Amino acid sequence: MIDKQLRIEQDTGRFRHIVRGHVRQNLRKYMSNGELLGRQGRELVSIPVPQIELPHFRFSDRQMGGVGQGDGDVGTSLGRDPNGDGPGPAGDQPGYHIMEVEITLAELAQILGEELELPRIEPKGKRNLEGDIVRYTGIRRVGPESLRHFKRTYRAALKRQVASGAYNPDNPVITPIRDDKHYRSWRVYPRPHNNAVVFYMMDVSGSMTTAKKELVRLTAFWIDMWLQANYKNIQTRYLVHDAAAHEVDKHTFYHLRESGGTRISSAYQLCKEVIDAQYDPEEWNLYAFHFSDGENFGGEDDQRCLELLREHLLPWMNLFAYGQVKGGYGHEFIETLEEIEDEKLVSCKINREDDIFTAIKIFLGKGY
Known about the structure:
By secondary structure, this protein is an alpha/beta fold. It is built from 11 helices and 10 strands. The protein folds into 3 domains: 1-55 and 98-117, no CATH class; 130-190, no CATH class; 194-364, Rossmann fold (3-Layer(aba) Sandwich). Strands 7-6-5-8-9-10 form a 6-stranded mixed beta sheet, sandwiched between helices. The longest helix is centred in the first third of the chain and has 24 residues, at 2-25.
């Protein structure tokens, strides 16, 4: 029975290794697949992989012929016709099956980090420490006198004296001895602090189409997963802007569409105000990811953005990342950001799904 269990565990381990290899090999494809987000559960995500069988020999009990036996011409294809799919009469043979395997988000984050060679990020400030909370959860027979449980000790002493005949109802003196004493016991539970806050900012002006926001949604999903693998708790804030900025919830962030112009500085100003009011940069690890098609309103607003970044946001942030989805023609905001030389500011273009893979490496590859 033990040997059988061991073989099962070995086969399971080999299967998981094969699955991880397949996920690693096709990671770029998964990162650009929006259906992956729909299958996401609380801690597990379903990954579609081809049917996997562990290799083994199979012997037939009858001589049915085989390779090199029977009639045939040179070049005759063996096995199923690779061009057999398509229109035609109904068939009676099994098809090529795809199965889904479940993998934890932690495993997926680990594979992502290994494949993109992302370093572990190192949080700053005391917010990355865990506090402790003490809870009294039980009773034990030894402990300090300050934690002695009076009722249990009294009850044990009373039972002992009654059982031994030493109890006198006319003089009910109860004197506990060592074996009667009970003490409260405790356990220490970790109490994690919120140690990081992530700001997602997105342009929702009329030029930001549904396809552009889908690129933002996919990119943000993988960023979220990676940061959650490095921090115990994360607070997430969603800011949207056209010519003005305001804070929204997650669902609104990905589905809102407006028709106004674009003033990027409004989002940076709102981000600054939220940090001023709620997050001490000395205590919090701050990350910001801004997505736009780069069609900002005039050079004056570009200069306002540079001022906010240089004087306020970049000195506070662990990382400020700008992702520009495909926009129109003419001057692009990503060109304005080239005027700032700061390793905490990174930017890239995300024109199609395949660029998400590269964007994650650029955004998180410096270890912030």
